From TrEMBL:
Function: Catalyzes the condensation of pantoate with beta-alanine in an ATP-dependent reaction via a pantoyl-adenylate intermediate.
Enzymatic reactions: (R)-pantoate + beta-alanine + ATP = (R)-pantothenate + AMP + diphosphate + H(+)
Name of the molecule in the record: Pantothenate synthetase
Alphabetical GO biological process terms: pantothenate biosynthetic process
Top class in the EC scheme: ligase
Misc remark: The reaction proceeds by a bi uni uni bi ping pong mechanism.
E.C. numbers: 6.3.2.1
Gene Ontology CC annotations of this record: cytosol
Metabolic or biological pathway: Cofactor biosynthesis; (R)-pantothenate biosynthesis; (R)-pantothenate from (R)-pantoate and beta-alanine: step 1/1
SUPFAM superfamilies named in the record: Nucleotidylyl transferase
Binding site for (R)-pantoate: 61, 156
Residues that bind ATP: 30-37, 150-153, 179, 187-190
Key words of the record: ATP-binding, Cytoplasm, Ligase, Nucleotide-binding, Pantothenate biosynthesis
Length: 283
């Protein structure tokens, strides 16, 4: 497995692979890897000739009061997992390599589509501009045929899909299903912040989504009714930023579900903020 910290070297590796007609799959991550990330790697390896994974804790998507400094960086463990998974190249640039002159003075950025505005956009107003910009930069540093993103970060996936569509980027976005712990908790790098008690209480998030799905499958098409089911079961959380059922395309509220929808939750256990969701398909 080769590791690259320079954009030029990473780009040269990708160019060499694609000149010979081979396809490349890119898996962007912030490290602290778990089985959710590895499922993206497996999907990339299954559908592409070569797989590149990036590890970069992107400063421009964190607000000043967020966990940029504490974000876990177990780089040796991450590299061992990627080696074991058969990844051929890892892009792990420094912040200076990605943002010469400093992330805070970085001038040109991607303005994401309106799908970035609700939900996470309300609670993390600069977040998706930072995500879209760094993903655009990762696509330039590691030019690939396909990029793999998890449905766990559902709104992020929408933002990236819109960016690729609106800016005509020559890359296919491949959404990958949410990988969960055996008890239902969505895998997330931030789960490692949880105390035993918080970890136990965090289970109410996936349970509330199970109950919403059950009510939806039983015929409920009233978002308010579904949201109240979620609300009733999220009381073990210390704070609920949102627990909503919205349109799958726009992520905006609808009076009645007539086409595909999605239930999304963001909630805190202690200082840890977790997100999860469940797609509700009208069929
Ligand atoms: N449980 C999961 N199942 C599937 N994909 C996942 C899962 N968790 C993360 N991913 C995906 O992995 C990619 C990298 O995500 P990231 O490195 O931020 O991990 P994370 O676990 O979501 O971290 P965080 O706890 O900071 O949200 C994203 O596309 C994300 O959606
Ligand atoms: C897509 C991403 C790697 C951009 O920094 C990050 O937001 C993540 O890990 O989901
Ligand atoms: N998985 C999304 C990255 C973030 O929360 O910044």
């Amino acid at each position: 497995m080769e590791t690259f910290s320079s954009i030029d070297a990473m780009r040269a590796w990708c160019r060499e692979k694609s000149i010979s007609g081979k396809t490349i799959g890119l898996v962007p991550t912030m490290g602290a890897l778990h089985e959710g990330h590895l499922s993206l790697v497996h999907a990339a390896k299954n559908s592409c000739d070569h797989c590149v994974t990036s590890i970069f804790v992107n400063p421009t998507q964190f607000a000043a009061n967020e966990d940029l400094d504490q974000y876990p960086r177990p780089i040796e463990d991450d590299l061992a997992m990627l080696r074991h998974a058969g990844v051929e190249a890892v892009f792990m640039p420094t912040a200076d390599e990605m943002y010469p002159g400093g992330a805070e003075r970085h001038a040109t950025s991607v303005h994401p589509s309106a799908v970035a505005l609700p939900l996470e956009g309300v609670h993390r107003p600069e977040h998706f501009a930072g995500v879209a910009t760094v993903v655009m930069k990762l696509f330039q540093a590691a030019p690939s045929d396909r990029a793999f993103f998890g449905r766990k970060d559902f709104q992020q996936l929408c933002v990236i899909e819109h960016m690729v569509r609106d800016l005509n980027l020559p890359i296919e976005i491949v959404p990958c299903d949410i990988v969960r712990e055996p008890d239902g908790l969505a895998m997330s790098s931030r789960n490692r912040y949880l105390s035993d008690n918080e970890r136990q209480r965090a289970l109410c998030i996936s349970k509330s989504l199970n109950l919403v799905e059950r009510a939806f499958l039983d015929g409920s098409r009233d978002p308010k009714q579904l949201e109240s089911i979620m609300g009733d079961h999220l009381s073990p959380c210390d704070r609920v930023d949102y627990a909503v059922v919205v349109d799958r395309q726009t992520l905006l509220p609808v009076p009645k579900i007539t086409r595909n929808a999605v239930a999304l939750v963001a909630a805190r256990l202690g200082a840890t903020r977790l997100i999860d969701n469940r797609e509700l398909e009208t069929g």
